[in-house]
Q: What sequence folds into this?
């Protein structure tokens, strides 16, 4: 399946460079013509896994229709930690502190975007990351987002899934299993970055949501877990944390 996808993608790149039309041959001797520029995405489905531009996701049968990616942004397998991002930033960096944070003027009390309290900075009442500030969207494409606070809570809701601390291919993390269909995702315990240091890797996981902590504008909501628990949490926006993208069923 993946070999076929890569072949198709390479053909599309070549066609785009030559300004060619694409002709899709479907069952029943039907065809559909378009230019490469008119294509938004190509979706291949196979045994519960859906592959778009080499990014896979799993349908856990959640009520919201949320589909969770199998890897973190910056990773090539479920066990890899991937990249770390400050909340609202779209590229990893060497140091994660307030004075290096994009959306403040060197202080947690001088926030310049996503601010709901005048004591924290200039109020704009934005509480959800815009696509241009979403590390999942900017790195993987418009169909992907960082999960919302509600999507994170839904993921570990015991009505829909089970959560088990485990070791997968030598990496500690949390295995989430759907109660409706048995499908799973693995979240490595990638720790978090503060300053120049990676802390608690192998013992804790911190995964950003795209939702601002409404009680304190200097924090974003996240998914937190260790060997004995999993829950939502909040953390300073300047911390470097993992991002596991989501998307929503369209049919």
A:
């Amino acid at each position: 399946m993946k070999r076929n996808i890569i072949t198709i993608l390479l053909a599309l790149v070549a066609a785009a460079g030559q300004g060619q039309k694409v002709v899709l041959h479907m069952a029943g001797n039907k065809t559909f013509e378009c230019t490469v520029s008119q294509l938004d995405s190509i979706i291949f489905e196979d045994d519960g896994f859906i592959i778009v531009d080499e990014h896979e996701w799993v349908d856990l049968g959640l009520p919201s229709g949320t589909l969770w990616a199998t890897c973190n942004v910056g990773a090539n397998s479920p066990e890899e930690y991937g990249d770390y991002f400050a909340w609202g930033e779209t590229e990893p960096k060497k140091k994660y502190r307030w004075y290096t944070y994009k959306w403040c003027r060197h202080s947690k009390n001088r926030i310049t975007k996503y601010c709901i309290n005048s004591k924290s900075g200039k109020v704009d009442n934005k509480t959800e990351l815009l696509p241009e500030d979403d590390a999942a969207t900017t790195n993987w494409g418009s169909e992907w987002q960082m999960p919302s606070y509600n999507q994170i809570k839904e993921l570990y809701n015991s009505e829909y899934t089970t959560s088990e601390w485990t070791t997968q291919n030598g990496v500690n993390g949390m295995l989430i299993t759907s109660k409706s269909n048995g499908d799973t995702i693995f979240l490595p315990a990638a720790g978090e970055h503060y300053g120049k240091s990676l802390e608690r890797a192998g013992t804790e996981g911190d995964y950003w949501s795209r939702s601002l902590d409404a009680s304190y504008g200097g924090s974003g909501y996240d998914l937190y877990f260790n060997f004995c628990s999993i829950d939502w949490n909040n953390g300073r926006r300047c911390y470097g944390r993992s991002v596991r993208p989501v998307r929503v069923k369209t049919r």
Remarks:
- The mean pLDDT is 86.
- The two ends are 22 Å apart (CA to CA).
- The longest strand covers residues 161-168.
